[in-house]
Amino acid sequence: MLSSVSHRHVMAGLTLLAVLPLAACSAGRSAAPAAKTVSQPDRILAAPKGILAAGQPQTNGAIWTLAGNARSKGLFEFSLTSGQAIGSISVSNAAQSMTESLAGMLGLALGTGKAGALELLNGNTGAVALTVPLGAPAREVVVGADGATFYVLNGSATSASVTIVDSADGRISGTVPVPLNTVSIVPDVQETALYALQPSGDVSQIAIAGGKVMTSFPAGNSGRSLALSPDGSTLYVLKNGLASTNVAVVDLATESVRKVLPAPSNCLQVLVSANGNQLYQVVGSASYGNIQVIPL
Fold first, then answer.
1. Domains of the chain: which residue ranges?
2. Per-residue pLDDT tens for 66-93?
3. Which residues face 213 on adjacent strands?
4. pTM of the model
């Protein structure tokens, strides 16, 4: 069974926060410059190099990130306000994505060549609460607005689906088919439908009950990541094109792109703050990592 080695380390005194212009970072961490555009981020927070994903920014100002490589991976928590590192957890090298509910439950998507699982961890202690086996390798995990339901994108070379897991007991409450090459998902606020993003930039809205595609619309080329505003009215679509990287701001009432926000190269993921006032852009490569904060 896929599982993580959960051991929490407290890292008091290490400061990760950086504000433009960036100072030199500690060993193993560096920060890339912001994209050269008219709109600049309010802040750039230095993060572990090799960052792969980040969880929802918490109301207490903390955030968890997943970082590492094929040899070693871990979860790293730090404060978005003070920049102080809070702790870390060693996890399975099969970890592909992570999220955190506003109640503090961590979800870790695990995937190897043939197997997959969702691992649920206590965000305060790092202890593994539940491990839920999946039918295929996991690609991404997100949490619903209720804070208790986790949605895991998983698939093989021939099919893809989203497995819906109740974090209270690990029960699988449903499975929703999605397009084969789906790269990112997010449930609507009511948790009655899923938005599924494809590399083409096409977004499909799929009913959770029955799996019917309700509508599809384009958001631009080279889709990478989705995030939804807390009120459910706006979808943020990260696109990593050859010429440029940006975020399409989609009005869901009209299914049209209202505007486009700049994003730096090597941007991997977008997240929206709980109050909807900030967009977090997760940026990284094998040699650096940072989180850029854009006012909305």
1. 8-23+42-295
2. 999 989 999 999 888 877 788 999 999 9
3. 206
4. 0.88
